[in-house]
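step 3/5: co-fold with adenosine-5'-triphosphate
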Amino acid sequence: MTAPDHQDAADREDAPDREAADRQDAGSGARDAADRQDATLAVEVPAGRSRRVGIMGGTFDPIHHGHLVAASEVADLFDLDEVVFVPTGQPWQKVHRTVSPAEHRYLMTVVATASNPRFWVSRVDIDRPGLTYTVDTVRDIAAIRPGAELFFITGADALQAILSWKDAELVFQMCHLIGVTRPGYHLSGDHLPPDIVTLLDVPAMAISSSAVRERVVGSRPIWYLVPDGVVQYIGKHQLYR
Ligand code: ATP
Ligand code: MG
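step 4/5: write tokens
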């Protein structure tokens, strides 16, 4: 396992954005495609209650089984109708390294979630010009799913930094936070206002995207840490070499 990285929230919140202009140009077509995908998700919401939607934000460089198990566990225990994975916009750098292009991160996330009828991937963050702020992510998903009850899923490391997020109060008003355990990090909501976060034990997966990337660099196997299709995608596109 790699050394603890407490930069997740900062990565989502503070990353300068070099490709914003490109995304703005390409944005509307991509957004149309994303809308089509949302529309085809065949989840039936039980009558008499609102749709319950989990939001899992991340860099997903690459997505791994830690992300997927956390989302699946929260979906089961919170009776979620769906979980939307939202890859961040393109930060020019994430803690001393360049982040893979958004399209690769988006496609790996699609590959990894494709077989789960309740999982889908949103382009809202990668298509929005400028920095990725969670408040915008939640607002955009709320617009796609009007009337839904939203649950923002975050690992123990990212939860620590949540108060530094832009418009954190607004985020708390729009969604409930689910903080999940992550090996190597202490899970606590003591720094947060009461009643906005639920802490949850999920099966321990000592996996990080950083460790997966390091393994690729060292020609070590990444099978079983990430879904098979993601292993193949990484090889096909020569990522992390
Ligand atoms: P990196 O090493 O590049 O920072 P990462 O593995 O931390 O990657 P992110 O995309 O940064 O993955 O994380 C997205 C979200 O998933 C964060 O809320 C993070 O806390 C959570 N998360 C990541 N890995 C795990 C894991 N193994 N168990 C539980 N939650 C996780
Ligand atoms: Mg991280």
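step 5/5: annotate
Residues 20-40 form the longest helix (21 residues).
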